[in-house]
Amino acid sequence: MALLEVKDLKVRVEEREILHGLTLTVNEGEVHAIMGPNGSGKSTLSHVIAGKPGYEVTDGQILFKGEDLLEMSPDERAAKGVFLAFQYPVEIPGVATMNFLRTALNAQRKARGESEYSTPDFLKKVREVSKSLNIPQDMLKRGVNVGFSGGEKKRNEVLQMALFEPSLCILDEMDSGLDIDALRIAADGVNALRSPKRAMVVITHYQRLLNYIVPDVVHVMSKGRVVKSGGKELALELEASGYAQFEDAA
Amino acid sequence: MPAVQETVERVKRIDVDQYRYGFETLIDSEKAPKGLSEEIVKFISQKKNEPDWMLQWRLEAYRRWLTMTEPTWARVDYPKIDFQDLYYYAAPKPKKTVTSLDEIDPEILKTYEKLGIPLREVAMLEGVEPKPGEEDPARRKIAVDAVFDSVSVATTFKAELKKAGVIFMPISEAIREHPELVQKYLGSVVPTSDNFYATLNSAVFSDGSFVYVPPGVRCPMELSTYFRINERNTGQFERTLIIADKGSYVSYLEGCTAPQRDENQLHAAVVELVAHDDAVIKYSTVQNWYPGNSEGKGGIYNFVTKRGDCRGNRSKISWTQVETGSAITWKYPSCILRGDNSSGEFYSIAISNGFQQVDSGTKMIHLGKNTSSRIISKGIAAGKSQNTYRGLVTAHRKATGARNFTACDSLLIGDKCGAHTVPYIEAKNSSATFEHEATTSKISEDVLFYCIQRGLSQEEAVGLVVNGFVKDVLQQLPMEFAVEAQKLISISLEGSVG
Ligand SMILES: Nc1ncnc2c1ncn2[C@@H]1O[C@H](COP(=O)(O)OP(=O)(O)O)[C@@H](O)[C@H]1O
Ligand SMILES: [Mg+2]
Questions:
Q1: Are strands A143-144 and A92-96 parallel, antiparallel or unpaired?
Q2: Alpha-carbon distance B289 to nearest alpha carbon in chain A (angstroms)
Q3: Which InterPro entries does the entry mention (chain B) (predicted)?
């Protein structure tokens, strides 16, 4: 079943059109990779799906589980199961990570009409997941991402993904700034979350990440459009021949 | 729309009118005629059954006040106050000495109930005891002095405090029952000639709290005073005097609210603290006076003089304030570090929204040797408000080894507000070390969006970020009030984000 349907999406930022009619369908259980050169609009797409302010959708639509996503506020989208792992996770000084996780999780649950997690259940869950991601407990006492290394920030994103159990995960350049070991831990965390009910959209500039998170479908983006889609072998092809061949197609 | 712009939009629709304590209590009250004269001063003194020395003290202050002019140096702007158009005394009727809570007008009790202030000590004592080893902060005992307009209406836990030797009573009572203490200390930190508002207060103050902690005593519970202005056109001039004798400890909290009114109300309090050798005074304020409505109409003018005197060696005075209310705040809780090795602290959170104007800060006057002071100020400006930190740190010639650390951080929400930092530093000896740090930042759209993407509403996100920003200061509050203050911060910013 289609989980996410982006149809002929046109988006402007400050009067300039960035996405020129983008179409993309992601089914439940699938992992899609979106590849493309810098400036092709990958982050823009992820921001528009998540509902970041500052983008004007001039045409097209986005359906999530058949519902009009663009009608929902960003926090509603989060509660419905849209999760965006940021390329550059922000720091929130003075707000303990543990407190943040709990506040966010309970806000989502409340929006869905579910009861709040009890403290022991919550702690148990956080401990389990953080252990598998190699996140030490004292890191959770620190301010959100404050003084975290690049790898720690990304693992913190995966930790939230695991806790909130979203049905759509968009990962924007998860590999940027990570060394191989850090990348492997984060990717293992992501792979553990693959499930028949959950879809993932992995945005990346490099093929490297796709060795660890192997996609079902690969899309190539150029100048605000998807210009080619194929199987995982498309990524390797790109690695060998580069993006230049698509510049004209766009 | 970008998040910050959205915030600004919402600020325009700001609804400070959702101020939750804006109700009015309908009770009969007794007022002195409008205006100020020697007759009024005498009237107040007489109403309080004061001894002659007290009356003379007031009259002297009054005569001095007539020669003074209002200060204009603060970064606040307001129409001229007509001091003859105010009531200087209002007391809930019937005015007789109350000995137990049952004699208090039930309407007043209801008011305090609505405010969530525990005047009913019985109910607290009968509450379910927390399990052993598990401290329930909400059930810790707190002695309360409730001041309604000009009069103290109830003081709880008096008997229990008396057993420990602690005197906690309305200052009007202390003037009659402990004249030697009051005469010795009143005006010894803030002299009657100190400044326009303090002098006015000295002439017309009607009530407030008095605390004396004897040598070596650790006050067995938190002391607190709740001030409530109810009457129209009535100035509130309370006077607080706290003395911590040698080696004693006391923690004191003051809370303030007022009904919503179209006209501005004047509040000009004086607080004096005296700490003798090795004594510690912790003074916390959660100030939530009515800030005025969405057009900037109404609200309290809060012109307050607060000063602590570290008179003894190794004494310590710590001010913590959470300022969210008032149309105008003019307030600089200060420490005179007279004793050698004494120390002063000032922790402040000042939030302004709507049309509020805040000019607040502290003075640390280093006189003794090896004295130290610490200033942590967090200003948050939203709406069309102006938020100024004004601080003075001086080291006297003899204050060798004086040390100060100051950190002033300002956070702006939207682009119609302003934050200003005005630090004055003056070292008259070369061994003083003063450090000053200041930052100003805007609440970041990316940080807000991050929180919202994780399921928080815009409002919750702002509340979370701001609470993180002020965390260092919140930690200084007694635990039960830290929770209250955290809620208050979110509430006072509610207007700023819709
Ligand atoms: N806030 C913004 N203001 C102006 N231009 C922007 C903004 N965000 C993105 N753009 C422009 O949109 C294009 C696509 O950017 P982006 O979505 O970040 O690409 P990618 O993630 O593929 O590198 C770029 O040309 C970029 O300069
Ligand atoms: Mg990008």
A1: antiparallel
A2: 27
A3: Fe-S_cluster_assembly_SufBD, SUF_FeS_clus_asmbl_SufB, SUF_FeS_clus_asmbl_SufBD_core, SUF_FeS_clus_asmbl_SufBD_sf, SufBD_N
Q: In the β-sheet with A2-13, what is the strand arrangement from edge to edge? A: A16-27, A2-13, A56-64, A67-68
Q: In chain A, positions 104-123, which contact chain B (CB-CB < 8 Å)?
A: 104-105, 107-108, 111
Query: Can the peptide bond before residue B94 be classed as cis, meaning omega within 30 degrees of 0?
Result: yes
For B464, name the nearest residue in chain A, comparing CA atoms only: A95
Least confident of B16-30, B367-381, B410-424: B16-30
- What 3-state class would DSSP assign to B357? strand
Asked if A129 is an interface residue toward chain B (Cβ–Cβ < 8 A), one would say no
Sign of CA dihedral B463, B468, B469, B474: positive
Mind listing the pLDDT tens digit for each residue in B192-202? 999 999 999 99
- Give tens-digit pLDDT for A190-224: 999 999 999 999 999 888 899 999 999 999 999 99
In this prediction, residues A131-150 reach a mean pLDDT of: 89
Contact B460 A90 (CB under 8 A): no
Q: Do B455 and A94 touch (CB under 8 A)?
A: no
Mean pLDDT of B68-90: 81
Query: What ipTM is given for this predicted complex?
Result: 0.96
Best mutation target, A100, A108, A146, A159, to test chain B (most B CBs within 10 A): A100
* Residue in B1, B453, B460 nearest the CB of A74: B453
Minimum distance, in Å, between the CA of residue A21 and any CA atom of chain B: 22
pLDDT in tens, A150-164: 888 999 999 999 999
Contact B101, B119 (CB under 8 A): yes
pTM for this prediction: 0.81
Kindly determine whether residue B453 and residue A50, on different chains, have CB atoms separated by under 8 Å: yes
Alpha-helix runs per DSSP H in A112-242: 119-132, 137-141, 150-164, 180-192, 209-212, 233-241
CATH number of A2-246: 3.40.50.300
Ligand 1 site residues (CB inside 6 A) read A 13-14, 18, 36, 38-44, 54
